[in-house]
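Dear colleague,

Following up on yesterday's call, I've attached the two folding results inline so they're easy to grep. Please treat them as preliminary; we haven't cross-checked anything against experimental data yet. The first protein's sequence and structure tokens come first.
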Amino acid sequence: MKVIVMGAGVIGVATAWYLSRAGHEVTVLERNAGAARETSFGNGGQISVSHAEPWANPSAPLKMLKWLGREDAPLLFRLRADPAQWAWGLKFLGQCGKKQSTRNMVQLLNLGTYSRSSLQQLRGATGIAYDHLTRGILHYYTSAREFESALEPARIMRELGCERQVIDADEVVRIEPAMGAIRSQLAGATYTSADESGDVHKFTTGLARKAAEHGVRFRYGVRVQRLRTLGGAMAGVEIASESGMYEVLTADAYVLAMGSFST
């Protein structure tokens, strides 16, 4: 099958890799001069299954009210006269109930566990070096209330196979001695030893090279101008090169992995 992947970030490149290994003919379109030049150039770099608790949870509505107007808020929400924004907000609030939040956490946890396992297999198969470390991720709390609210999600995660352990301040300092400076402020913490970190840019560019060696065609410096449809289905992609040359590409399947430009 002929497949066009739009976007050469970590999602697009990984998708192209797996499609190619499955025997498909893959072309990747990217407006930059190389892979991982935008969203995947630099991010948190965490492979953190323990972050599976969704933003939409029972404590979120009150927190969002407190965060309104704060430019440094963890979740920045600027109110506008935009029906789409208000519709999204209502859907978000509808997922903040305990039942919905737990269901979503289970789904995210399963997806995260599968993703981490796939990454480990890919790393072993390709030997890509991307400053990978498996030192775990520590979530610490200076508020007793926040710490108490983290205990139930941690329990559910442990039941589902994610070893997010609840630890005290002494154990925090043992794991990370630098935390000794605020030892007296620590209410508690959770620690997931299996969580990982790495350089997403190095990973993506390394995988792009491997994919190209296995036959994936990368077309850099081209912009997706429009998606053609016919009868409610994709019928082609209009692209333009940096020189302004237009072209229409067709395939049997299409993957849109252009970050914020996918909307």
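Below is the second protein, in the same order (sequence, then structure):
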Amino acid sequence: MNHRHLLACLGLAAGWCAPIRAEERNAWPLTVKQLNADGQVTSTNAVGPLFFQKQLPEGGRASGLRPFYIQRTDAMDRIVESAVLYPLFNYRGDAESYTWTVFNLINRSGLQPGASPKLRASNDEKFAVWPFYFSRQTGDPATSYRGLLPVGGTVKSFFGYDRIFWVIFPLYTEVDKNNAHTVLAPWPFLRFTSGAEQGFAFWPLFGWRDRPGEFKRRYALWPLIWNHTLYPHEDAPAGTPPTRQMGFIPFYTREQSAGFVNENFAWPFFGRTDRTALFRYHETRYFWPFLVQGRGDDRRVNRWGPFYTHSVIKGYDKTWIGWPFWRHAKWEGDNLAQTKTQFLFFLYWSIEQRSLANPNAAPAGKTHLWPLVSAWDNGAGRRQCQIPSPLEVFFPNNELVRQTWTPLFALYRFDQRSPGNVRTSLLWDGVTWEHNDAEQRAAFHLGPIFSVQRQPAERRIAVGNGLFGAKRLAGERTWRLFWLDFPPKPATVSTAATATR
């Protein structure tokens, strides 16, 4: 993966990108339309950023009334994504399945009528109202379940357990995991474990649990006192000692395994870590987390918190100065050298990416000065900037936030598709100016009041979108006055036509 491709996914453009523009019809604040080279409408905004519709390069269209409702359709005009006051309600679907959620608390997923016979055979339908009702129906009793909390029910493959069963929770609960069966009556105080594990607990006073060949766990006055023995995995070298974990908080804790010791005194303030297996590392802690010194293979920690911290762990180089004020990090991976700088986490946030395969290539980067501005450069000629930008730093990869909310704040927007192909807008396209050097085209629009356009075929100055003005054709020296010379009504682009382009 090269840096230009990676930073492309970090751009500021509302993820469902619009096709290339050729002409603008500006009747702000009613409508602002973008036309392609064939004179067809590819994008429409109305009432500032509220109403919008645009054709998508891969076919289909995006449309909606921000922030209340947005949707995206495919080339077959089928809704594949929609949202109502996102993240209040969100829907996603394709030809075979669908999911929808209400604030991630009420969730539903299932199959479309046109699903393949293989999927229809599974008949997997899920519905949940957190944290009260859970249902999955597959047509197979082994994988189907229903449960109403706290009344009673069963869920399977849930929260890391194979099965959870309850009646009048928390009075009676059963959990199964890895052939171990545990009864909690009532939860969480009394615990009886049988099957592949044996155990009993009277929480929080004491408890024990054993799994032969894997572990022995003991605790008292949870979470203050514990003593665990973890036996080595079956594929561990012969003679590998078990891992011992013990603690009496706040006085002393210790974990010891083959080539590893971790101790804490007056937990968690003083301690040490020594590792000789897999890699070498020694760490000493004084008044943790403020004073920490560590040295080892591919690892170095020098912390004098909160004033200064510098660590290098497996190539990840991180520095804090005056935590939490200034943070600087450098690392390499996926053929990229990356540098991130932050001030107070999000007030200033910047990342730069350079290609390790092509060091002479221009860097890509993204910068936020919250909540004033966000700027993005993919290093290949594509640049964007928006003022103000209060959300992008918190949701850098969330396309629905970018489509629903980000345009509402776009008082100023700069968009360079390539060097010499630039569009700038103020007040949600109330004032726009753009130029395309390759097409020898430029335009300025003050809403519908005044416009200046330059194209190879003519130059045009108009008031009221053609109410009156002047124009000069190519090859002519004199300007000609005109009135009532309005642009022709544009055609619309079908989604199927867009998909075949």
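For the second protein, one point worth flagging: DSSP finds four helices and 46 strands in the chain.

Best wishes,
A.L.
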